[in-house]
């Protein structure tokens, strides 16, 4: 007896392959080891104050001289503030966060500027990968904010 392949067999074969493909995708995504944490746990509270962040980002964009970021592989990430911002008249904080793991985030609620207007994030607390540095500071009741992507190797 000879088997004859008809269009009905083709439809069943195509549907079976499609179902197997979809199931493979579902199980691959479900059991993958990647975790994606929220950027913040206080999402709704921060969303209410988003206009203040927009204004602070605009204020930072208007600065003639902005803070500079230097990546020094031996010592860490160095943030250099302009001369007008110093440890006597500037307050602020920074957040260095990773999108894939909240456990690797670094938060500092107070800028400890040295007399040379620099701040160092030591290399021993950094793990290889992509970070986003959110830098917030205030001088003369004016808020400033910068967001800088950083790749640490």
Question: Explain this structure to me?
Answer:
It holds the Pfam family FixH. With 153 residues, this protein is of the alpha+beta class. The chain has two domains: 1-32; 43-152, Immunoglobulin-like, CATH 2.60.40. It is built from three helices and seven strands. It has helices at residues 7-30, 43-48, 50-61; strands at 68-72, 76-80, 91-97, 106-108, 118-122, 129-139, 142-152. The protein has a four-stranded antiparallel β-sheet with strand order 4-3-6-7. The chain has a three-stranded antiparallel β-sheet with strand order 1-2-5, with no helix packed on it. It starts with 6 loop residues before the first helix and ends with a strand.
Strand order of the largest sheet: 4-3-6-7
Radius of gyration using CA atoms only: 25 Å
Q: According to CATH, what is the topology of the largest domain?
A: Immunoglobulin-like
Class from helix and strand fractions: alpha+beta
Low-confidence stretches: none
Mean pLDDT: 89
Give the tally of β-strands.
7
Helical run tally: 3
SSE topology string: HHHEEEEEEE
Name the CATH class of the largest domain: Mainly Beta
Instruction: Quickly give the CATH architecture of the largest domain.
Output: Sandwich
Instruction: Tell me the overall shape.
Output: elongated
Helix content: 25-40%
């Amino acid at each position: 007896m000879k088997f004859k392949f008809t269009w009905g067999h083709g439809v069943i074969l195509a549907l079976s392959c499609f179902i197997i493909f979809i199931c493979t995708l579902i199980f691959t995504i479900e059991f993958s080891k990647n975790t994606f944490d929220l950027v913040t746990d206080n999402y709704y509270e921060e969303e209410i104050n988003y206009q203040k962040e927009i204004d602070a980002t605009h204020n930072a964009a208007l600065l003639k001289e902005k803070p500079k970021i230097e990546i020094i592989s031996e010592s860490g990430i160095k943030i250099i503030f302009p001369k007008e911002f110093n440890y006597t008249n500037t307050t602020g904080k920074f957040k260095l966060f990773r999108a894939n793991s909240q456990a690797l985030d670094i938060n500092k609620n107070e800028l400890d500027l040295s007399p040379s207007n620099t701040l160092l994030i030591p290399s021993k607390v950094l793990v290889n990968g992509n970070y986003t540095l959110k830098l917030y500071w205030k001088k003369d009741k004016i808020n400033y904010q910068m967001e800088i992507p950083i790749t640490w190797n």
